[in-house]
Amino acid sequence: MRHGLAGAAAAVVLAAVIGWTAAPSAAAPVDEQVVHEVAAQLRCVVCQSLSVADSPSETASQMRGIIRERLAAGDSPEQVRAYFVEKYGDWILLSPPKSGFTLLVWLVPFVGLGIGLVLILVVVRRWSRTPQPGPSSKLDPAVRERIRREMSELDQS
Fold first, then answer.
1. Helix (H, G, I), strand (E, B), or coil: what is residue 93?
2. Do 45 and 92 form a contact (C-beta atoms < 8 A)?
3. How far is CA 128 from CA 65, 132, 136, in A?
4. CA distance 63 to 55
5. pLDDT tens-digit map of 21-45
6. Mean predicted confidence (pLDDT) in 101-114
7. What distance in Å separates the CA atoms of residue 42 and residue 93, rounded to the nearest whole number?
8. Are 60 and 44 in contact (CB under 8 A)?
9. Quick one: which of 102, 93, 98, 106 has its CA closest to 38?
10. Secondary structure of the chain: what % helix, strand, coil (to 5)?
11. Rounded to two decimals, what is the model's pTM?
């Protein structure tokens, strides 16, 4: 019986040690600034023009909770963003990634601005250009004398 009691006591101690080490530890405290930074990069699926950090909607509140939970579970901010991109696609990011097709979103405004500046420069140069004098015609002395005579006749009349 002593062996049975000692074995049972050992089993209880062993179970307590295993239970204590396997018990989930309290969630690590999450820096609310990090939660806000991640939420500020994500689009609210309800408001669409606001970030999750700025949106007053219930969905945005739930998304902030998910961000907080994932960060507390040990995910990095990049992993949390990747989770939302996997779930909603690149659309969820307020700033689209600068690669692939979305690279056009970043480049087209600058290309358009460049083309517009070149067009303005061309138009201003054309407007400010002074007109060139026409070809000078040398009149024959006989024609000059005739014009002078006709002008003097007009003055006398």
1. strand
2. yes
3. 62, 12, 23
4. 10
5. 444 444 567 888 999 999 999 999 8
6. 86
7. 5
8. yes
9. 93
10. 65, 5, 30
11. 0.52
Tokens of 109: 């405004």
Q: Where are the alpha helices (DSSP H) in 73-140?
A: 77-88, 103-128
DSSP 3-state of 133: coil
What is the CB-side half-sphere exposure of residue 92 using CA atoms within 13 A? 18
Amino acid at 88: Y
For tokens 């000078």, what's the residue?
Answer: 136
Mapped onto helix, strand or coil, the DSSP state of residue 51 is: strand
Q: Which residue has the tokens 């070809």?
A: 135
Is residue 13 very low, low, confident or very high in pLDDT (cuts 50, 70, 90)? Answer: very low
Cβ(31)–Cβ(72) under 8 Å?
A: no
For residues 1-37, one letter each, b for 16 or more C-beta atoms within 10 angstroms of the residue's C-beta and e for the rest, the string is eeeeeeeeeeeeeeeeeeeeeeeeeeeeeeeeeebee
Encoded tokens for 130: 């002074």
Looking at residue 100, its amino acid is G
**Which domains can be identified in the chain, with CATH numbers?**
26-120 (1.10.8.640)
